[in-house]
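Model it.
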Amino acid sequence: MKFLQYLSFVIIILCSSCVNKNKTANDKFNRLETQLQNIDLDVINTIVEDPKFFNQDIHLILLIAEGDCGACINKGFELIAEINNRHNISTYVITSGLNSGYLQLTYSYEKYIYQDNNDLIRKKLQFCYTPILFAINKKNKVQKALVLNTKNLTRKKIKDFSYYFNKN
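Modeled.
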């Protein structure tokens, strides 16, 4: 009987520590998304060589790096397709260290995937969890950011991010 009480106590402690870790991680992602707003991503101009890029008011950028989880990348491709279909916004996928052909085949993405071979975006940001979605304006300022970590990604966060495009 004592063993069962002890085991129950240990299980409760372990479960509560997992909840706290997830809450802490979510808080960090939320802070990161807020900190990234209004950062100037002028280095985008050296990576994306598309004349349309400079003529539109808002762009959606999916930044992917080597080592990102497949489910998170998949969610990113799903979201850019959904937002593009709904709002007809230019979307750009930029990868640092991943084979663009592999990404296109794996995620059935038929548009061009830009390579950030010198990791300029992440160097500019200094710290950036990937994959991440950015809404940037014509002046290359980050207007909204969404970290695509499946543990952090709630329907409300996706809705809030998508709502940004309704306003603009």
